[in-house]
Write a structure and sequence with these properties.
It contains 2 helices and 8 strands, in the order βββββααβββ. It has 131 residues and is an alpha+beta fold. Strands 1-2-3-8 form a 4-stranded antiparallel sheet, with no helix packed on it. A hairpin with a 2-residue loop joins strand 6 and strand 7. Helix 1 packs across helix 2. The longest helix has 12 residues. It starts with 10 loop residues before the first strand and ends with a strand.
Length: 131
Amino acid sequence: MILAHNYHDAELAGVEYSREKASLLLAFDCVGEGVGKISCTGIRNFRLGEFGLQNVVSRLMVSTSRTFAAEDIRAHVDWANSKDDVRRSMTDERARFFVDGISNGQLVLLVLEPSVGAELVVVCERVEELQ
């Protein structure tokens, strides 16, 4: 997946989640480029942490354009399944499900690493940049 916008230093400005539709829409104010929107559908897991008044992106990584190591997939999915006060760890069998699904393209992993504010991990069936 080649992104039309540069999301480095972009501000995550809006998040819209629909449990019924299993979808997540992310809106970014991209430096000098206007608004960028990313749609995630077929949500399996996601976690958004530290969303506040300022949410600046350092890196936005998507498994359709970047290869994640198996241990990184496991760490990201473990974080997405955890809560602030309870750290969860998947069984090896469950981890294999996610590693295999993401590695073979049946599932997509999206990771937003922050400079400031929001951190995000999404596991879904499809990620698309909207024009």
